Amino acid sequence: MGCFQSKTSNVQSPDEESPPAEKPDLATGDPSPASDHHHHQAPAFKEYTLSELRSATSGFSADKIVSESGEKAPNVVYRGKLDNGRLIAVKRFSKQSWPDSQQFVAEAAGVGKLRHQRLVNLIGCCAEGDERLLVAEYMPNDTLSKHLFHWDKQPLPWEMRVRVAYYIAQALEHCNNENRRIYHDLNAYRVLFDEDGDPRLSSFGLMKNSRDGKSFSTNLAYTPPEFLRTGRVIPESVIYSYGTVLLDLLSGKHIPPSHALDLIRGKNVLLLMDSSLEGQYANEDATKLVELASKCLQSEARDRPNTKFLITAVSPLQKQREVASHVLMGLQKAAAAVLPIMLSPLGKACARMDLTAVHDILLKTGYKDEEGAENELSFQEWTQQVQEMLNTKKFGDIAFRDKDFKSAIDYYSKLAGMMSVPSATVFARRALCYLMNSQPEFALRDAMQAQVCMPEWPTAFYLQALALSKLGMETDAQDMLSDGAAFEVKRQNSWRG
Fold first, then answer.
1. Could you tell me what percent of the chain has a pLDDT over 70?
2. Where would I find the beta strands (DSSP E) of 66-145?
3. Model confidence, pTM
4. Which of 92, 47, 86 is nearest to 65 (CA)?
5. CATH for 28-138, among 3.30.200.20, 3.30.565.10, 1.10.287.380, 3.30.540.10?
6. Are strands 122-128 and 131-137 parallel, antiparallel or unpaired?
7. In the chain, where does the domain assigned CATH 1.10.510.10 lie?
8. What burial class does residue 311 get, using C-beta atoms within 10 Å of its C-beta: 0-12 exposed, 13-18 middle, 19+ buried?
9. Which whole-number Å values give the CA distances from 284 to 235, 248, 316, in the listed order?
10. Which residue has the higher pLDDT, 28 or 276?
11. DSSP string, 368-426
12. What gap in Å lies between CA 376 and CA 388, rounded to an integer?
């Protein structure tokens, strides 16, 4: 029987050495498939009528306000929905802002030309009468400020904080490359999370503030020294503000840069760290991020690094690049497709990511799906080698039954190396053990190996779906569930026939 081609067949077995994957250089701003996707997802910039935006926001209703400062803010941000169903964020400036409508539209159109997967892209504006409004993509998962300082269920994990630092550095580098080097008041409110849980930099900060007041609305303790001296924002001011965001990420609270620098100089780095992150990071990684913050917060603008340096410094600190942001953050993400109509109990358990139920079902099923298959488990010649193999299987099965998943991985790995014809069940069981040990990438590879052994075995597809869900690859997971269900139907029909 020919081997069914898996949608994830480029993933190798954990026993094989993986060649480095070819990835686009995001540091240079070259579009990756993800960036390309977002590039096409954001519509072209256009001018909206006031009536369109009034309709989209239910007449600028107070219950549509999403800016955390609420109605007291001079500029209010509303959630809206266009007639085509697209969700948008609408920023409404105060009456005194932007007296010159042409200047406003020209500035907005300039920012609107920028398109990048790390930016909340600006998709339109409106300048009618005294009204000045900007329209951007809607980000449904709150601001960095909310996740760092006002979290409800769990603090933002270390790996996600490093990802925020990296993605925002990428956004700033892209703006630099597009000759948009000034970003006003970079802070934790300017970083928002999209539907995938990925952090993006608000494009509103790229707009000149005109007569809207200060370029820095935050506490003076967080303002770049040169702005206090001259009242001007320069590109190096943005790096200083990036340093204050790094302090927020490291500490989980607002720490004035001067106080943070005193702690850093006194080698009291651990006093700076958010206590909720204990055990999540290597001390040398934290130290590197603290040192980067210190470089960004230098009082002399010329002593601060550039955006390329930020990317180079933060990139190596990412240790879980393959895990989706919404998984790291514990956010629920809507399924990309409707679940297949017919799923077996195992399929349903995998769909809801119930590892305990999956374990119970695999335990009850045993090796019966492989009955009749030619494998090393049915040897009749009792050689010492076969006896050792059977003992290894026995110990692995006992560890699996007793939920000693680390030992089960060891025994099953040894067993897989001894068998000339591999067992799909062994790979399936080891896949679940890897999932229980939070190693979904290894689980996916084992589930695929099980599929190679038995190309139409629903269990192999269901376990791949479970591993893909754990990795945040929801669309692929749904495809695998559908394939598993299809083979389930085929199998039942053959039994009936």
1. 82
2. 76-81, 87-92, 119-120, 122-128, 131-137
3. 0.61
4. 92
5. 3.30.200.20
6. antiparallel
7. 141-334
8. buried
9. 29, 19, 12
10. 276
11. GGGTTS--GGG--S--HHHHHHHHHHHHHHHHHHTT-HHHHHHHHHHHHHH-SS--HHH
12. 12
Asked if residue 214 has pLDDT above 70, the reply is no
Q: Supply the CATH classification number for the domain 141-334.
A: 1.10.510.10
474 CB neighbour count, 10 Å cutoff: 20
DSSP letter at 340? P
Containing H/E element for 328? helix 325-329
Length of the chain: 497
Place of tokens 């997802």: 41
Of 152, 185, 262, 285, catalytic: 185
Average pLDDT, the chain: 82
Q: Where in the chain is the domain with CATH 1.25.40.10?
A: 345-496
- To which residue do tokens 């030309």 refer? 113
Fold assignment, 345-496: 1.25.40
Does the structure show a pLDDT above 50 at 26? no
- 372-415 pLDDT, tens digit each: 554 444 444 456 667 788 888 899 899 999 999 999 999 999 88
Instruction: Copy the structure tokens of residue 353.
Output: 């990511």
Q: Where in the chain is the domain with CATH 3.30.200.20?
A: 28-138
The CA–CA distances, whole Å, from 342 to 124, 457, 459 equal 45, 15, 14
Nearest to 456 by CA among 490, 497, 421, 428: 490
Identify whether 476 is a catalytic site residue.
no
DSSP 25-60: -GGGT---HHHHHHHHHSPPPEEPPHHHHHHHTTTT
What does the alpha-carbon distance between residue 98 and residue 105 come to, in Å, rounded to a whole number? Answer: 10
Does 165 or 82 have the greater pLDDT score?
Answer: 165
